[in-house]
Amino acid sequence: MVKKALAAGLAVLFSSAAWADRLVLTDGREFEGVVTVQIDGSALIVMEYGTLSFPKHKISRIELKDTPQQELAKRLEQVAADDPQALFSVAQWADRTGLKRRATGICEDVLKLDPDHDGARAALGYVRVDDTWRPLNEAVTLARSKLEAGQYDLLLTQILPAMEPLARSYGRLPETLELTGMAQLRAKKFTAAARTFATLANSAQEPSSLRYGAITAVLRENPDGMYVLTEPFPRDAGLLSTTAPVAKAGPASLSRPEVLAAALRDRAKPHIAQGRRIMEAAQALENTDAKAAHLKYQQASRALERANAVTGADVGGSYQVQIVRRRIAMVQREIEPMAAEFDRHYRQLGEKPVPPQIRLEMLRLADSIAVRLKEILALAQPYRSKLALEIMWAEKDLRMLDITREELKKPSSG
Amino acid sequence: MGPAPASPPDLQQALQELSAGRNALAEHLALAAAQSVGDPAPRAWLVVAEARQRRGEYAEAITAYRKYLAACDSADLRQYAVERIRRCESARHGPTVPRVPSRQLGKDALRRLAHVSRRTYMESSDHFRVRARNPDLAKLITEEGEIALRRICRELLGGQEYPLTVDVYVWADRDEYAANAPAEAPEWSGGCSSITYEYGLPSPRIDLTQLNAEDEFSTVMLDRVLPHELCHLVLSQFLGDAPCPLLIHEGLAMLAECGADTDRLVLAGTALAGKGKIPLERLLILQRRATKDQDQALFYAEAFSFLEFLHDRMSRREFRAFLEHVRDGCTVTEAIQRALYLPQDEQFLPALALAWEDYALEQAQVLRALSSVSPPALGP
């Protein structure tokens, strides 16, 4: 009985017909796919477009082909076990065929023979930094350290170019590109840095793309790499006597991280101003058009998020908390009349028999209030520490409502 | 051999030297870049100017800023250069000694100002209607009121307008003041400000006392009480009906007074170094009614010291933004963080308290060393 593992590389089978079995019927028809012969002699064939089963008497013959694993075994037999390059070729074949795990194992064998085999190292996710092979994660960390150590040339000519293809296949290209951009910036290669950050701005998602876009704009507006600070940066340094590096007011090089941070802070200011303006407009609408006010507040919050994205810091956070507080207050104002109505009915419970329609009305009110309380919780959730009281009150009210609702559903209540 | 061609690398080198404090070298490199025959870099004039300014060569710095302005195509940088020129001009003329009005008066003038007539004289100006029992005093208060108002609006509130007219009543002595000043004026005060509303329109008023306990003209009234009370009125108009911590109201009013009150700064520094201090987190929320009598002096001293610290460490624009955020309902710490575009940080208040205490202590030590006075006693 011939059994083939269906699970092993169906995708490979379909992408490469070379390993398909052939089933020939007595009427001459032929099918290609993965054949499984059953105990009763019938055959099951899994093909790209579906699965068919044929009884034994309809089958003329079955031509079984090698599975990828069998093919791999043959290839491995054909190469010298002590020839790293030949083994690596088989590993590449295995990788292309979809036998990733086997490919990894063969690459590991290659490294036992030749620990500096570039191809095998790269295939296993290693990059050479400081004459030592390191996993990509470690290499990224080391590259960051080298950036802080000022080894820009080494980064730009050796380490980062070596990391780039690896980062691309591991989905970490943006991180590597950002390191490249930062190294270019600090090495005062402003035009190249602008290009790198523009690439990042076009390829990254928000909020990162906003920050990269802002850096690109700063560099394009100041192609000589000079930025004029209108005030020292960071601003809390003067106030709190911190030990962070301070950029004095005046012209300074964008190659200094604190100068770039100051430039980005300046670019975030209009977003904050815009957020504040929209907040004021929303506030004016609160009592006349609550829906429009909510929308305006959302719009303001987005402007503030842009400020946060550009600076990479929570500079708009306190405004966003203020927005949420105001929106919660609006929702609470919506709840007030419903709660008053609910309380009015509630006071009657126990005093006299409550008609079923009143009980239904109370349930309806409770549901409406609960929806709004959940809205408050959803609004406050991202700012748990700042809005702990709002969350606590809403949760407490929801619990009370749940209890009351259960009571109302009992036929004896009232 | 001619000069090296000016190119961005030269400008970057100049910026590096400037950042390292080697201002002469920075100026030399930037000048070469700015004056390069083939490819002049006009922005390099900003480096030249900055290097000269940092070396105290203000006139030369102004020349460099003007050279830059001639080629400037950025509105922001034009504003920056104009502001720097203003600072250089101001630095050229040396530090401004704060003007104290009573020091402009000779003995004769002081004697004349102590005269109390039976008649009430009235003087008026754009913002004041002054009633006093001395014609010279009425005129003097009107003039000094306008000067103080300009200073408060410009320096403390960063360009605030004051569209109202203040009625100023100068009463002869404490008895007359106590009998005529609005009821809410504290007994111990030598002056007070109040706002009444007629037909919905605000009517600001200041009550002052002409003579001190020795029946001499009260210079304290002129130098301190008048600007202090005026500041309360301007701040109230700025804030509208927004609640404002007492600390801000009183601290700013004391900042408005002419001539720094060194006793207050010494008292604050001494208290903050010891156990008798009012901690910042309490100072920020303290209300007048909650202030015990023995804490009054300390509260005023610390409020003055804290506001003076903020005013010293923040730019005029930032200080104005800080007050706007307070007006919008922010707490003091939140308002500072917003004004400085700082991210929210739970540790900001303790760090701020520490920095202020260090500042106050250092200031008190310097003042004590300068005046060789013993520290004033804390409380009764």
Q: Brief overview, please?
A:
Chain A has 414 residues and is α+β, with helices and mostly antiparallel strands. Chain A has 16 helices and 9 strands.
Describe this structure in words.
The complex is a heterodimer of chains A (414) and B (380). Chain A has 414 residues and is of the alpha+beta class. Chain A has four domains: 10-65, SH3 type barrels (Roll), CATH 2.30.30.100; 72-221, Serine Threonine Protein Phosphatase 5, Tetratricopeptide repeat (Alpha Horseshoe), CATH 1.25.40; 230-321, no CATH class; 332-409. Chain A is 63% helix and 11% strand. Chain A contains 16 helices and nine strands. Chain A has helices at 10-15, 68-78, 84-97, 100-113, 118-123, 136-149, 152-169, 173-186, 190-203, 208-221, 235-240, 257-285, 290-311, 317-348, 356-380, 388-409; strands at residues 21-25, 30-37, 43-47, 50-54, 59-63, 126-129, 132-135, 226-229, 250-253. The longest helix of chain A is centred in the last third of the chain and has 32 residues, at 317-348. Chain A is flat, with a radius of gyration of 34 Å. The termini of chain A are far apart. Chain B starts with 7 loop residues before the first helix and ends in a 9-residue tail after the last helix. Chain B folds into three domains: 8-92, Alpha Horseshoe (Serine Threonine Protein Phosphatase 5, Tetratricopeptide repeat); 97-239, Glutaredoxin (3-Layer(aba) Sandwich), CATH 3.40.30; 242-380, Neutral Protease, domain 2 (Orthogonal Bundle). With 380 residues, chain B is of the alpha/beta class. Chain B contains 16 helices and five strands. In chain B, strand 4 (191-198) and strand 5 form a beta hairpin. Chain B has helices spanning 8-19, 23-34, 44-54, 58-70, 75-92, 107-113, 135-156, 174-180, 219-239, 246-256, 262-273, 280-283, 293-313, 316-327, 332-339, 348-371; strands at 121-124, 128-132, 166-171, 191-198, 201-209. The model of chain B is unreliable at 1-6 (pLDDT under 50). A five-stranded mixed sheet of chain B has the order 1-2-3-5-4. Chain B is globular. In chain B, 57% of the residues lie in helices and 8% in strands. The interface between A and B is large, with 38 and 40 residues.
